[in-house]
Amino acid sequence: MAAQPSPAPAGRRLTWPWFLVVAVVYLVILQGLGALIGVDRSEGDSQFPTAASVIRNGVLPIGLSVLFGAALVTWLGWWGSVMAYRVPVRRWVRFVPISMLVVAVLAVNYPNLADQPLSLVLSLLAMTLLVGIGEELMFRGIGVQVFKRAGLSEGKVALWSSVVFGAVHLSNAFGEGTQAIFQAVIVSTSGYFFYLCLRVGGTLLLPMLVHGLWDFSLLSNTVGPDPKTSPGMILPILLQVVLIVLVLVKRRSIEPTNRNQNAAPQPPATRPGTA
């Protein structure tokens, strides 16, 4: 008996050019709403001096972008495939989410947060968790599905979803200049690591958690009227370098040797003339 073709993915179709349009709309929501309701912080050294600045510059526009992503996934009918991504991966790749979670916890600027009002710390936590939810839903959720359904290999799905993720962050050039280009490259590599978190966990919840805690760790150095950078900030930088080298060295051994080890078993072939 010939192997049966795989069923078509459930839900509506979204091509990659339309996904790029969606990414632009997502960016307009973030940047546009932030510009309209944000608090001017150009005169201070702190990125988020008060809870109000966190809420207006971060929580509200990012929260709206989460709603946009959720509405899009609902319209596409992709919740099942977006939230669960069952693709085998080698055991060594588990090091990626584990190391990122450990470093995120260790690198938090606890002394700086201890000096801030509880409302500011909770606002920062809410904002960074929303960043993890929104960006992972858009890029490791919708983006991965778009390139996967286009017939790309897992390597190319990881590459292009990460490239788009980094390119979106080029919009920071309006506020940070050419530094945003370097940031976009680093963000692209982080996007690849979040993709590996998705592969390891088999659910979008894991990269959402890792992403949110990672950003909380980094931004814990930027809150308050007089923030002081923690020496622990070196840990995320070192881990980023380690993970880049590790993935470059072992990039050919991310996929399992037996690509079909989790495939559903096929019924036994029948001989001609037999029932």
Task: Explain the overall architecture.
The protein is mainly alpha-helical and 275 residues long. The protein has one domain (16-253). The chain is built from 11 helices and no strands. It has helices at residues 16-37, 51-76, 79-83, 95-107, 110-114, 118-149, 154-168, 173-176, 179-201, 205-219, 234-250. The protein is globular, with a radius of gyration of 21 Å.
Largest sheet: none
The general outline is globular
Q: Multimeric state of these chains?
A: single chain
Helix content: 55-70%
Describe what is shown at a glance.
The protein is mainly α. 64% of the residues lie in helices and 0% in strands.
Label this structure with key terms.
disordered N terminus; disordered C terminus; mainly alpha; 275 residues; 11 helices; single chain; 0% strand
